[in-house]
Write a structure and sequence with these properties.
Chain lengths: 414, 333
């Protein structure tokens, strides 16, 4: 012990400090060296493979792989291939932040795409924008458009609650009636949906007869249903998601609410509908994509065929399609920019006018929200031809910036 | 990691092993820090290393109550979360420098710990566990509902501290290795203070309460007050862990306060060895590396971590580090 302290005392302090400074700077120097190299184009893809949305997340991965495969088959970026680095974010924002740090710091990804919950996507976005890494979000969120969370590197491929609820409201209210009730999961996403409906309804002169909030993850809705039945609204908007949506629709159906009231779920998911079964009959909702779009849109047909060929005839789900679009938007922009440099790719993405799988779409300049169509679907029941034939597309709201909240409202400077 | 510490002692034979162990016990803070200083080079990636550091500190703070005082709390996520939110809110809404922001987080956690401790300390055993659980859920919902401040379900974002400005120097926290060592300075200080506390007469009273509360009372110690002080210190340490976590991740998810997080503290302390000083860090490292590695391999990682945890409880009830220390002692005697 004694000699050791003696020796370290003799050790030059300046040398130690210089060495230490070099050791601390080494990772930064190495990273710079790496970034200039021409390895594969790496896309980090954090999604909740485990947790409540595991099925949707796996579909996102499968669809994203197709976008990567197509890019590589077409020769990549002058022979530079793309690869997808999938990470399980466990539907936990903290885990997602850790995984995003791993993807950026250890795996040195060029871009990030992914996430499937508002909280997780905001967390990935915060980590990515602080480090100047381009992130294309494929999860619904209103907050990600707002100036507070937006960064120059932030893109939002998915719909947002405002667009979806607005489109559904504009379809449903004139057709099914103006006396509207809300049953809302009490968290940001539910509130955003209600705001979207109310905004659309104001112009149409709706009357809100009830705005009931239930805790997220509730399993018993019998306390709310008698009140709703007594009010006899024309339309009941179920502003909840996932299992909450399935359970509340099942219980409302059992309660006989459908006799007097049209049930509306702003975001009606392909996977949730398949899991929920018969109870969904006649429920109207919005979605970003449904595979039967192939009947009218050629790019949807091409995407579905590629997906079917790769995965034994399965059709992609709505969130799956977003995985494809999210990755493809980035890779097409890389091709257009002829570079993986973040600034050049951002410029290319802002200029992108795409028709990848659902018709025309583009990123709005101020908040990088993808302006795209919203499909209104109604759930089938007895006339289903096969297990995947669950919806009829009853309306399409064409892409229109006027349907979004204005840039000024979101806090962006003009 | 444990190998680095045990190897020389295990080779040392009977007499020398015992002496080495005594030496190691005397320099436990130095040894802990030496291992932690080398850790980022062994860990799979830096962000995970920081997680282990932070959650190790969290488990250490929890263990003051669990391992040393013998009180099983199921509400420590409230302190982790309060520390994180306190710091996050101070930076995002108050625009404070990170250092006073960390202090704000620790103070908030301490205040909440004082209130919770005051109410919970009157109960014991399973009732203590249930009271702390219930109170921590109250704290959870309070923070969940304060959406303008905490972001509610979406979590608090924007705790961006790209560099720690210390007047003369500015440390680039955006560099993962620099961030690790900056956080290690905080953790190291806390570990040192913690060790001093345990070595003090106060630490001895804690263990006396754990072994026999009535006897400690008969010896004239104010058991209730000692428990409360231990509860508050434990909460403050967990609050510091939360504050560091907020700066590390740049976000505070509401999940930080969820009772599942309280359960993780119990798991990490048990896995590492609740009766040892270094055990919580070993537990945190094992737990997180295992979870990380398995999650990369399979989507059924929960099944495997569960099975491994059961195996540890059945076959290594004193925890990984507890077992290592016990073996060294046997070899040394």
């Amino acid at each position: 012990m004694a000699d050791e302290t003696g020796r370290s005392g003799a050790f030059s302090r300046r040398g130690l400090l210089q060495g230490g400074a070099l050791a601390l700077a080494a990772p930064a120097l190495m990273r710079r060296a790496w970034a200039q190299g021409a390895g594969p184009i790496r896309i980090g893809f954090p999604v909740p493979l485990t947790g409540a949305f595991g099925a949707e997340a796996n579909d996102q991965v499968r669809a994203a792989q197709i976008a990567v495969k197509e890019f590589n088959a077409a020769g990549g970026l002058d022979g530079r291939m793309a690869e997808l680095l999938v990470r399980d974010d466990k539907l936990n924002p903290g885990e997602a932040a850790t995984r995003t740090l791993e993807l950026i710091e250890k795996d040195k990804v060029n871009f990030l795409v992914g996430a499937l919950s508002a909280a997780v996507t905001l967390s990935v976005n915060n980590v990515a924008r602080e480090r100047g890494v381009l992130y294309n979000s494929i999860s619904q969120s209103d907050a990600i458009n707002e100036a507070k969370d937006f960064g120059r590197t932030t893109f939002h491929e998915a719909l947002n609650p405002h667009m979806t609820a607005g489109a559904v409201g504009r379809y449903v209210f004139p057709k099914h009636g103006k006396r509207v009730a809300f049953l809302t999961a009490d968290y940001a996403y539910g509130h955003e949906m209600v705001r979207g409906f109310r905004r659309a309804g104001e112009a149409l002169g709706i009357e809100v007869v009830a705005d009931i909030r239930h805790p997220i993850g509730a399993s018993d809705y019998s306390a709310f249903l008698p009140r709703l039945a007594a009010l006899k609204p024309d339309v009941l908007c179920l502003c909840n998601f996932g299992r909450d949506q399935v359970v509340s629709i099942q219980q409302a159906t059992e309660f006989g609410l459908k006799r007097t009231t049209k049930l509306v779920a702003p975001v009606l998911l392909f996977t949730a509908r398949k899991a929920g079964g018969d109870a969904f009959e006649g429920v109207v909702g919005g979605t970003s994509y449904y595979w039967r779009l192939e009947d009218s849109v050629p790019t949807a047909k091409a995407f579905n065929d590629a997906f079917r060929a790769a995965y034994n005839g399965a059709v992609p789900s709505d969130y799956g399609a977003l995985g494809y679009a999210g990755v493809r938007s980035v890779l097409e922009s890389v091709k257009a920019a002829k570079s993986t440099d973040t600034d050049k790719v951002i410029a290319a993405m802002e200029a992108l006018r795409a028709d990848f799988y659902k018709g025309p779409q583009y990123f709005r300049a101020c908040d990088h929200q993808s302006v795209q169509s919203v499909l209104i679907v109604e759930s089938k029941h007895k006339d289903q031809k096969g297990p995947d034939d669950v919806f009829t597309i009853v309306g399409t709201e064409q892409p229109d910036e006027a349907r979004l909240r204005t840039c000024a409202e979101l806090g962006h400077k003009a | 990691m444990s190998g680095a510490l045990t190897a020389p002692a295990a080779r040392g034979g009977t007499g020398r092993g015992g002496r080495l162990l005594r030496q190691a016990a005397r320099h436990r803070v130095g040894l802990t820090l030496a291992v932690l200083a080398l850790f980022p080079f062994v860990a799979p990636y830096e962000a995970l290393a920081v997680n282990i550091l932070v959650l190790g500190l969290y488990a250490l703070g929890f263990n003051l109550l669990f391992g040393y005082t013998g009180l099983l709390s199921f509400g420590h996520a409230a302190f982790l979360g309060a520390g994180a939110y306190g710091t996050g809110i101070a930076i995002v809404h108050g625009g404070l420098h990170p250092l006073p922001a960390i202090a704000a987080g620790v103070v908030l956690a301490t205040v909440i710990a004082a209130v919770m401790g005051f109410l919970a300390i009157r109960t014991r055993g399973i009732y203590f566990a249930m009271t702390t659980l219930a109170l921590s859920m109250c704290v959870y919902y309070a923070f969940y509902q304060m959406e303008p401040l905490t972001g509610g379900e979406n979590g608090l974002r924007g705790i961006n501290v790209p560099a720690l400005n210390l007047g003369l120097v500015s440390l680039p926290l955006i560099d993962p290795l620099v961030k690790y060592y900056v956080i290690l300075v905080f953790v190291g200080t806390a570990v040192w203070l913690f060790s001093r506390l345990l070595a003090s007469p106060f630490g001895a009273v804690l263990e006396a309460i754990r072994e026999n509360e009535n006897r400690a009372r008969a010896c004239g110690y104010d058991v209730a007050r000692t428990k409360l002080v231990a509860f508050v210190i434990s909460g403050a340490v967990c609050g510091l862990a939360g504050a560091l976590n907020a700066i590390h991740l740049s976000i505070v998810p509401i999940e930080t306060m969820h009772y599942a997080m309280s359960g993780e503290a119990v798991m990490m302390a048990l896995l590492g060895g609740m009766r040892t000083f270094f055990g919580p860090f070993v537990g945190a490292a094992t737990f997180l590396v295992l979870q990380d590695g398995l999650a990369t391999l399979t989507s059924h990682w929960q099944l495997f971590t569960g099975a491994i945890f059961i195996a540890f409880v059945l076959f290594l009830p004193s925890g990984i580090w507890g077992e290592v220390v016990a073996r060294l002692k046997r070899a040394g005697s």
